[in-house]
Specification:
- There is one protein chain.
- By secondary structure, the protein is mostly beta strands.
- The chain is about 5% helix and about 35% strand.
- The strands form six sheets. Strands 13, 16, 18, 19, 20, 21, 23, 24, 26, 27 and 28 form an eleven-stranded antiparallel β-sheet that branches. Strands 2, 5, 6, 8, 10 and 11 form a six-stranded mixed β-sheet that branches. Strands 1, 3, 4, 7 and 9 form a five-stranded antiparallel β-sheet that branches.
- The chain is globular, with a radius of gyration of 25 Å.
- The protein contains four helices and 28 strands.
- Strand 19 and strand 20 (about 345-350) form a beta hairpin.
- The longest helix is centred in the first third of the chain and has 18 residues, at about 60-80.
- The protein has three domains: about 5-85, no CATH class; about 90-220, Immunoglobulin-like (Sandwich), CATH 2.60.40; about 225-450, Glucose Permease (Domain IIA) (Distorted Sandwich), CATH 2.70.70.10.
- The two termini are about 35 Å apart.
- Bound molecules: zinc ion (ZN).
- The site of zinc ion has 6 residues, from loops.
- Zinc ion binds near residues 5, 250 and 386.
Length: about 450
């Protein structure tokens, strides 16, 4: 398999996302009783696990010491609020809100991540995560369990988790990609119901696991969504490595930079163009000039201000990714443009041809204006345009945000299984082409869509 582009350690990933996200949804008839939990108020252990050392007790015989400790725990439990619950596996959304968007499949998609950390010496084995309406937790939007659960778990190093057990002091990321019926109103905020085998109570030593259930991790649903123009013009543009399967190299590519974990490429697309016969490349695939995409004009998706460019890196030889030893934070995206579209939205165009960038930092551009030409610079194995929107001008230290393209046409879709099985992009991909492209408005292109932008303007 071939990887078009990614940030680092890309050899572990394949080019194609095999399927669109479609979390199974189910309706919960009621709410589960919280089992095997205790409530304590401000249960505060020291870093060494010793409550006594924190409270500076005088020296005393060990039995008396333990008895006093037990009494204090009981007092704490008695004084606590009944709403408090011991939750050894702490769960929080990576971002404070998520933005639903309409995909070209007619569904509403919601894509975000949870961060799970086991704070107890007892291992925490995740059994189920349900996404529920924050105002009415009996309404379940999606349920993850079994293989569906484990396939969405990632280590903080973005590798697939070996299993659903999280050891003491360990953290996992959980990738959520909801595909929802557009006829069903979305709630104002979501919560997450977690079933986990874990420690029943706080303590410095491992104990037998018990089943715990709790509803945590509120996430605000934001209705704000950028609407943009196309980043390219012409027909036959394929959304390679597109949204939203957890296996997609873009969607799953978290990166720890500037002290945080970011999913900058969450909604990134590698655009490659098919010719009318359905081919990406003709002749020698190791020659960048033989790709139909190579040299295409890259366009401003809206009025904005250029905030960063790079324009002096040579093309890579297509066919394989460059030697990882040659890739740095500075050159990973190749020649590129970052455009400030206003209102906290930034557009990122990567892998452009050397010397083709025709705009400068600080320059104002209009929608549709040519920024540069599609190339194969940086960490790229074939000519393509990597494009995404993000929440800050920082290319790596920024979370990707979804958007809608105001006018496009769906000209087909490359079968995901065929693309996943391919060893390269050579060959004929016309199988998924439609006889008559289907005009669309205000939708987000999904994985392996074949898109015509020629209806624009
Ligand atoms: Zn890319």
């Amino acid at each position: 398999m071939l990887t078009l582009c990614s940030r680092f350690w890309v050899g572990e990933f394949s080019i194609a996302s095999p399927s669109r996200a479609s979390a199974s949804s189910a309706t919960r008839p009621g709410w589960e009783v919280i089992e095997n939990t205790i409530s304590v108020d401000s249960y505060d252990l020291g870093c060494d696990g010793s409550l006594a050392s924190r409270l500076q007790f005088p020296a005393m015989p060990r039995p008396l010491y333990l008895l006093l400790l037990f009494v204090i725990v009981l007092l704490g439990a008695h004084a606590s609020s009944r709403s408090d619950q011991f939750t050894p596996l702490v769960v929080s959304p990576l971002t404070t809100n998520a933005q639903p968007f309409h995909g070209t499949d007619g569904r509403v998609h919601l894509v975000y991540e949870l961060v799970l950390t086991n704070t107890s010496p007892t291992p925490a084995t995740l059994k189920k995560i349900e996404v529920v309406d924050g105002s009415n937790p009996s309404k379940t939007l999606a349920s993850y369990y079994g293989r569906g659960l484990s396939s969405c778990l990632r280590t903080t190093g973005r590798l697939t988790a070996e299993n659903s057990t999280i050891e003491f002091n360990s953290t996992r990321l959980f990738l959520i990609d909801l595909s929802l019926d557009p006829a069903i109103p979305l709630p104002q905020h979501l919560m997450h119901h977690v079933d986990v085998l874990g420690a029943p109570s706080p303590g410095p030593k491992p104990t037998a696991q018990v089943l715990l259930s709790y509803t945590v991790a509120p996430l605000h649903i934001s209705r704000k969504l950028p609407v943009i123009g196309a980043p390219l013009s012409g027909k036959g543009w394929v959304a390679v490595n597109g949204c939203c399967g957890a296996d997609s190299i873009h969607r799953s590519s978290s990166l720890s930079v500037n002290g945080r974990i970011y999913f900058a490429q969450r909604f990134a697309i590698d655009w490659m163009q098919l010719d009318e016969a359905g081919g990406f490349v003709h002749g020698d695939p190791s020659n960048a000039h033989n790709y139909d995409s190579y040299g295409a004009d890259v366009l401003a998706v809206g009025d904005g201000t250029v905030v960063e460019i790079l324009n002096d890196l040579d093309d890579q030889k297509p066919g394989t990714l460059p030697d990882p030893k040659t890739i740095t934070l500075e050159n990973v995206d190749g020649n590129h443009v970052v455009l400030d579209l206003g209102d906290g939205v930034f557009a990122f165009y990567a892998h452009l041809q050397k010397g083709s960038v025709r705009v400068s930092s600080g320059e104002r551009v209009k929608r549709g204006e040519v920024l540069g030409k599609l190339g194969n610079t940086g960490n790229s194995s074939a000519p393509h345009l990597h494009f995404h929107l993000m929440e800050s001008p920082s290319v790596l230290g920024s979370n990707g945000i979804p958007y809608l393209i105001d006018s496009l046409a769906i000209a087909g879709q490359i079968p995901a299984a065929d693309f996943a099985a391919a060893t390269g992009v050579e060959g004929n991909w016309s199988k998924g082409l439609l006889r008559n492209p289907n005009p669309r408005h205000d939708q987000f292109p999904l994985d392996l869509d074949i898109v015509d932008f020629s209806l624009l303007k």
